[in-house]
Amino acid sequence: MPDDVKDQNASKEPSVDDDGKSWEGPLRQLRFQQQLVRSPNTKDRGYVRQKANNKLWVRERLDAFLDQNSFTEVGSITGQPVFDEKTGKLVSFVPANSVTGWGKLDGRKVFVTADDFSVRGGHADGGIMNKPIYGETVARRARVPLIRLLDGSSGGGSVALYLSMGSTYIPQMNILSNSIEALSVIPVVSALLGPVVGLAAAKAAISHFSVMVKDLSQLFAAGPPVVKQATFEDLSKSDLGGWDIHATNGTVDNVASSESDAFQQIRTFLSYLPSSMFSLPPVLPCKDPADRRDEGLFDIIPRRRSRPYDIRKIINAVVDVNVAPDEDGGAVSTFFEIGAYWGRSIVTGLARISGRPIGVLTSDCKVNGGAIDAMGSQKTAKFVNLCNHFGLPILNLVDQPGFAIGSQAERMATIRHGAAAMVAMYNASVPFYTIIIRRAFGVAGCAFADPENGKGIRVAWPSGDWGSLPLEGGIEAAYKRQLDLAGSESPEAREKLMAELLDKFEDVRSPQKTANKFGIEEIIDPRDTRPLVCEWVEHVYGTVLPQLVTYKQATVIGDSVPPGRGYKL
């Protein structure tokens, strides 16, 4: 008998014969099968292995994740019941390795597909292929968020299936087509809760948000045995596809410390998004005053241009804070960072302003000086596409010295990925509120400082510094002959000339000089940032976003987005 057969309760099957008149017999048999499927076989090798790896069983995950008593299962007795040939009694049951159904998160309806790794490691020969496909379809049609709890191959292929089928087969796109279509309509999130391989790895990547658990989950196209046969690399699961690999290359967005932390991150992410692209983002009551002026913003940007600062302090000073104290007794920022481990020169995340969800896009001057590289460009494009698709206006805090340069930057195709980021920002229909807090130089600077091509709201702080090139490097290029001539006399002479040239240009680089010519629309006191952004967000939610939602609703064909207008990863 297979290890994953559930028979610990088979002897307790109710002895109710079907008299052909009442439905009591069939209903009792149904409830017994449901009870059998929903009760763990603690002696099953798959279940024992799950627990030995400090992992929750699939139904424990659903209980821990969803609102209490909110789960309504779909396909509750999907699997392979085994009956006694003589008595007709149920003697064992092999459940499907996917548990699906409706549930609620913070009172909002969602659909969940959860892998059961204890049944054939989640492979297709232990499951019913149509079950997760059906789930992704009905979630899209119902316009509710889709949540995947991935553990194993999520119904992916296993060579053992060939024997039971009596043949091999050509892989069909229908196993992923519904995933791709769902991505274009509803929020799709994935939690990686174990080894995620093959089909499951593709599903993880075909998500708006994904989170993997540190030291518990891994992701790879093929597992260590297949890799060893193909490339002769003898690797552990973590060495092949651990969190430190995929959280730093952008395949996975966030990292969690535990399964419960992963569940909380998904709740937080979804709390900012509408249930579908055809609805407005959810607005919550806000007790943080819209006219709050944070005195710390006054001098947070050092006068000395080479000195760094903490961009996250600026974000937290502007966005809403929850009144309830955190563990340290302070207020909790609503900023939820996405992708902190990859493309680190760019900072992205979701937050609230006056209770209204927004996206936050900026750069981190502590990472490569804030210069945007290939990974940062990919991160920017992905995040802007997310905000644009679900109607989140973007707070754009600009300190962009330009594209990363040098041989490594060229090898990584920085300008190609940078161009994709520029296209994503330019094509976005959601409004930006752009604040130039420090630098805006070159092609990258123009993309971030003017994403709406002169048609959007833009202000600057007194610390603004902009141009076609950073002044120091530009002087080196423009006055190379004179500087080389002075350098031939002595290094001191070269330094003196350079200092004189910098002094000469210092006056014209003042942002006020640009404002005199209306090259920047307004220079503001940094302490006024939150009141101005709050006023903008309230206006956008009242007038602009409803029109965008109406337009989306008017261009829908059936329950799908028109061809060619699907979501761009």
From TrEMBL:
Disordered: annotated segments: 1-25
Top EC class, one word: ligase
Domain of life: Eukaryota
Basic and acidic residues bias spans: 1-22
Catalytic reactions on record: propanoyl-CoA + hydrogencarbonate + ATP = (S)-methylmalonyl-CoA + ADP + phosphate + H(+); butanoyl-CoA + hydrogencarbonate + ATP = (2S)-ethylmalonyl-CoA + ADP + phosphate + H(+)
Stretches assigned to coiled coil: none
Start and end residues of each CoA carboxyltransferase C-terminal domain: 289-539
InterPro entries, sorted: AccD/PCCB, AcCoA_carboxyl_beta, ClpP/crotonase-like_dom_sf, COA_CT_C, COA_CT_N
Pathway assigned in UniProt: Metabolic intermediate metabolism; propanoyl-CoA degradation; succinyl-CoA from propanoyl-CoA: step 1/3
Stored Gene3D superfamilies: 2-enoyl-CoA Hydratase, Chain A, domain 1
Enzyme Commission number: 6.4.1.3
CoA carboxyltransferase N-terminal domain boundaries: 20-285
Single GO term (MF): propionyl-CoA carboxylase activity
PANTHER family, per database record: PROPIONYL-COA CARBOXYLASE BETA CHAIN (PTHR43842), PROPIONYL-COA CARBOXYLASE BETA CHAIN, MITOCHONDRIAL (PTHR43842:SF2)
Complex formation: The holoenzyme is a dodecamer composed of 6 PCCA/alpha subunits and 6 PCCB/beta subunits.
Name of the featured protein: Propionyl-CoA carboxylase beta chain, mitochondrial
